[in-house]
TrEMBL record:
The lineage of its organism: Bacteria, Bacillati, Actinomycetota, Actinomycetes, Kitasatosporales. It is found in: Cell membrane. This is MFS transporter. Keywords: Antibiotic resistance, Cell membrane, Membrane, Transmembrane, Transmembrane helix, Transport. The chain crosses the membrane at residues 49-68, 80-99, 105-126, 138-160, 166-188, 200-220, 226-248, 269-290, 296-317, 338-358, 364-389, 401-418, 438-457. Residues 14-461 form the Major facilitator superfamily (MFS) profile domain. SUPFAM superfamilies: MFS general substrate transporter (SSF103473). It comes from Streptomyces luomodiensis. The keyword Nucleus does not apply. Its main location: membrane. Residues 482-511 are annotated as: Disordered. It comes from the Bacteria. Residues 482-498 have a biased composition (Low complexity).
Length: 536
């Protein structure tokens, strides 16, 4: 396929449907946190139920997102994307209709499966369908509209919770899917990877998800059940399944998670930083929205609106942050960014009873937002730059799954570490005390991430990647030209014209900038309450 131009109707329809599909998952991740206190009151649920309302979704999404990308490559990216959209909508409907907490949690797990199918497909469709000359602009539009959706998500969620009710947070996805799926089927061409073959690593996906699920269960149950068989057995079983997952991935010929990619010390280091950063972010946003409503006394709408400064800063400044990271290298941003975020989280301990927004809450969110601006774009760039370009999609998928897994464990473990009991969120005084203990824990994890970045991330990581890509392009073009020369005039026909053109194009193309997500059709890890990806 030569590629669809963005100016053509098919190109515009493609961007529209991928933005709409991604908006479903993005909005869901930003608005559900705002609805948690009302969900708990309406269903008579304790804190562990609220934790599972968040974690059931992240569990299946983190465990299956790599498998979802592989399914799209094999069976068709449009087909799997549309399947994910429909699946997500039906699961959302089940969430909205849930008569009790158990049904809601099960439906949230089903939502995660739908998210694992549609999330990898949106950018993969743009990468495989849009003409290369228009791909950067298409990703820019996708990212820009996604950022706007992220910005309005908490505000919209608060309005729905205070208005028609928390169930409409989930019902909202149904009309979005009713538009998205037919448009995709009618206007988006099907693409797949003809080289994708072999068996799917279903065993690896099941082992990974089961290990995360059992460890999460143990962490959430521990405050109520203490050190008992009901906690110890799942914890040990989860760790054993995690070891089995590593063993299976090491031995399978086509694993879901090729462990060889971690032979890059830079890739391993950046993923360790990712684990620290997104563990802190997930714990912060989970607890801060509860704190604003339970302790400070905000409505759901006011709590969602209160968090907008972080999103606004990300929307306005992330592109410049990507340029700065490319100029000075990622080491300093990946060190300074987490430290700024840590300061912001410590300042958030002032958000107690009687807090004044402009004096006690806004400064914390501004400092946190600036830290996120400094951190997120260079983090993504370094992930992509730490592996060969041919494995950039896999690298981004692994980093995405790592961010989800970090958030999953954080939401499960942070209340336990802070001494937050099952009924804590029902008492403003009790929740305020534990919230003030939780924020230093999040800040400490960020400081650990900053130390890891300073000691392990190279300042020249992005420059080396660009040089390597450029050298690889010239080498491949030279090899193809040499093959034609050896073949001679009569044997020149043996070298396909398409391959010669491809080699010439590679040689003429300037080194791809690793901070640009569009060059391999992948994106940064998801970030609540929203993100803006840098692009050229």
């Amino acid at each position: 396929m030569a590629g669809v131009r963005l100016s053509a109707p098919a190109g515009r329809w493609l961007v529209f449907t991928t933005v709409l599909g991604s908006a479903m998952a993005l909005l869901d991740s930003t608005v559900v946190n705002v609805a948690l206190p009302r969900i708990g009151l309406d269903l008579g649920a304790d804190l562990p139920v609220l934790q599972w309302t968040v974690n059931a979704y992240m569990l299946t999404l983190a465990g299956l997102i790599l498998l979802g990308g592989a399914l799209g490559d094999r069976f068709g990216r449009r087909r799997v994307f549309v399947t994910g959209v429909v699946w997500f909508a039906l699961a959302s409907l089940a969430c909205g209709l849930a008569p009790n907490a158990g049904v809601l949690i099960a439906a949230r797990a089903l939502q995660g499966i739908g998210g694992a199918l549609l999330t990898p497909g949106s950018l993969a469709l743009i990468q495989s369908v849009i003409h290369p000359d228009d791909r950067a602009r298409a990703i820019g539009l996708w990212s820009g509209f996604g950022g706007v959706g992220a910005a309005i998500g908490p505000f919209l969620g608060g309005w729905l919770v205070d208005g028609p009710g928390w169930r409409w947070v989930f019902f909202l996805n149904v009309p979005l899917a009713a538009v998205c799926a037919p448009v995709a089927l009618r206007h988006v061409p099907e693409t797949s990877d003809p080289q994708a073959r072999g068996r799917f690593d279903v065993l690896g996906a099941v082992l990974g998800a089961a290990a995360l699920g059992l460890v999460t269960y143990a962490l959430i149950a521990a405050p109520q059940k203490g050190v008992s068989p009901a906690v110890v057995v799942p914890a040990v079983a989860g760790l054993a399944l995690g070891a089995a997952f590593v063993a299976v991935e090491r031995r399978r010929p086509e694993p879901m998670l090729p462990l060889s990619i971690f032979s890059s010390r830079q890739f391993s280091a950046v993923n360790a930083v990712t684990l620290c950063v997104y563990a802190a972010f997930s714990g912060f946003f989970f607890l801060s929205v509860l704190d604003l409503q339970v302790v400070v006394g905000y409505s759901a709408l006011a709590a969602g609106t209160a968090l907008l400064p972080t999103t606004a800063l990300m929307l306005v400044l992330s592109a410049r942050s990507g340029e700065l990271g490319a100029r000075i290298g990622p080491r300093v941003p990946l060190t300074v960014g987490p430290l700024l975020c840590a300061v912001g989280m410590l300042l958030m301990t002032r958000a107690g009873a009687g807090a004044v927004y402009w004096r006690d809450i806004l400064p914390a969110l501004v400092v946190l937002g600036m830290g996120m601006v400094v951190l997120v774009a260079p983090l993504t760039a370094t992930v992509l730059a730490s592996v060969d370009v041919g494995r950039a999609g896999l690298a981004s998928g692994i980093n995405n799954a790592a961010a989800r897994a970090a958030g999953l464990v954080s939401v499960a473990a942070l209340p336990l570490l802070a001494g937050m009991g099952p009924e804590a969120y029902r008492s403003p005084d009790a929740f305020a005390d534990t919230f003030r203990r939780a924020m230093p824990i999040c800040a400490g994890v960020l400081v650990l991430g900053a130390i890891l970045a300073w000691r392990t991330v190279r300042s020249d990581a992005l420059e080396r990647a660009g040089a390597d890509v450029g050298a690889e392009a010239v080498a491949e073009a030279s090899a193809e030209a040499g093959a034609e020369a050896v073949a001679g005039p009569e044997g020149a026909e043996a070298v396909a014209p398409a391959e010669r053109a491809k080699g010439a194009e590679r040689a003429a193309r300037p080194p791809c900038r690793p901070e640009c997500a569009y060059h391999c059709g992948v994106s940064a890890p998801p970030l609540d309450p929203g993100e803006q990806r840098p692009h050229t």
